[in-house]
Structures are given as structure tokens and as C-alpha cells.
Specification:
14% of the residues lie in helices and 44% in strands. With 216 residues, it is mainly β. It has two domains: 109 residues, Immunoglobulin-like; 76 residues, Immunoglobulin-like. It has a four-stranded antiparallel β-sheet with strand order 4-3-6-7, with no helix packed on it. A four-stranded antiparallel β-sheet has the order 11-10-13-14, with no helix packed on it. Strands 1-2-5 form a three-stranded antiparallel β-sheet, covered by helices on one side. Strand 8 and strand 9 form a beta hairpin. The termini are far apart.
Length: 216
């Protein structure tokens, strides 16, 4: 019996240790809330910088206004991305807003879906100098035009003597295009991709960056 209790206690203590190491809330920054879309249902873009050294498992994002009312809440279709350390990720989530009120204030909740750890942030928020400096060095690709019609142009600013893998995902998390490139400037033909919201994820070594694009 004592052995069983010792095993249970050890497993419980180990689980607490894992949880404690999973998400360090003070190392995240909510960079912006913007970009309402009107393709299908309205959506809200919440851009988050992970300045931690740990990965966030399938982040769930919820936004409330200053009264505590929920105005945007992610659903299961958007759980296909985690958020890596040093990653800047835009979470596109359904919203009740038709437009963003001027001077919007509220709270953003981010939950690690695996460990059920939730961090809360008052918005707008001021990021630390360290996070801003790290963001400047990590924010290394751009997409244009956005929205796009026939061609998706990608500029990878600091790609030098290495290969980048570009994956395009649809709104269900399915990879619809994969391109390997050593060029700073890449043009991708839309092909048979349907009108809607897509996500472009660029992998350079151990770094991952994600941006959203709309195809009209």
C-alpha cells in the first residue's frame, strides 16, 4: 500500500512539475487586436508573441471587453497550431464584433490546451524592452498583397545560405501547399485554392513564423 501511495505521489508531483514548466505567463505579449474580416463570419486577429522558452500546446484564445463580456472565442477548427518559443502568431478567431470599437480595452486569455493553464492579459498592454527587441529580430517575413487574388508573394528578409520550408494551411489545419526555397522572394500561384482564410507558416531551422492571408 505504501509503495502504491508513493508511486501516486511521485506521478502527481511530476505532473505538477511539468505544468509549472509549461507556460510562463509573464513572457508573453499581446501585440495587437485588429483586422476584422467579413468572409463568412466576422473574425478577430489577435497577434501574440511568445517570449518564453517553452512551447504552448494548441493555444485557446478568448477575448473579453472591459465589462467582461466575451467578444471573441476560438473554436476547435483553429487548434491545429501550437506556438513555439520566440514565435509571433496571429490567432484568427470568431467574433461578435462587426467592427473594432475605437479605443477598445479588454482582457485576452490564452490557455495551453494540453496542460489547461490559462494566462490573462489586459489589452492594450505594454511589452517589455526585451520582448520588443526579440520581436524585431524574429519578425522576418512578409506576405503581399493581402488579400490576394492570383499570386501570393512572400519576402523572407533574412534568408541567407539556408533553406526555408513554406507551408500553407487552410482553416481546418490541412496543408494545401508546401514549398522549399533558398530565395528571399517567393511567388506562389494560387492554383485551385478556394476563396477564404489561409495561414502561411515559414520554417527556418528551428524557427517558425506564421501569418494569415485572405484569398478573394
Amino acid at each position: 500500500m505504501k509503495k502504491i501511495l508513493l508511486i501516486i505521489f511521485t506521478v502527481f508531483a511530476f505532473a505538477i512539475t511539468i505544468n509549472a514548466q509549461t507556460v510562463n505567463c509573464g513572457n508573453f505579449c499581446i501585440l495587437s487586436i485588429n483586422n476584422i474580416d467579413t468572409i463568412g463570419n466576422n473574425t478577430l486577429d489577435v497577434t501574440v508573441y511568445n517570449g518564453d522558452t517553452n512551447f504552448v500546446n494548441y493555444p485557446i484564445v478568448l477575448v473579453t471587453n472591459s465589462l467582461g463580456d466575451t467578444v471573441a472565442n476560438i473554436n476547435s477548427l483553429f487548434y491545429f497550431f501550437g506556438q513555439a518559443a520566440g514565435d509571433t502568431l496571429t490567432h484568427t478567431i470568431p467574433t461578435s464584433f462587426d467592427s473594432i470599437p475605437a479605443g477598445f480595452t479588454g482582457t485576452v486569455y490564452i490557455t495551453d490546451a494540453t496542460y489547461n493553464i490559462t494566462c490573462s492579459y489586459s489589452y492594450p498592454m505594454t511589452c517589455t524592452v526585451g520582448i520588443n527587441e526579440a520581436l524585431a529580430s524574429k519578425n522576418s517575413f512578409s506576405i503581399f498583397p493581402n488579400p490576394a487574388t492570383t499570386t501570393i508573394n512572400i519576402n523572407i528578409n533574412e534568408l541567407q545560405n539556408t533553406t526555408a520550408i513554406v507551408n500553407i494551411y487552410d482553416a481546418t489545419g490541412k496543408v494545401v501547399k508546401t514549398i522549399s526555397t533558398t530565395e528571399n522572394n517567393l511567388s506562389i500561384d494560387r492554383g485551385d485554392l478556394q476563396r477564404g482564410i489561409y495561414f502561411v507558416r515559414v520554417l527556418i531551422g528551428d524557427r517558425e513564423l506564421t501569418k494569415k492571408i485572405i484569398l478573394e
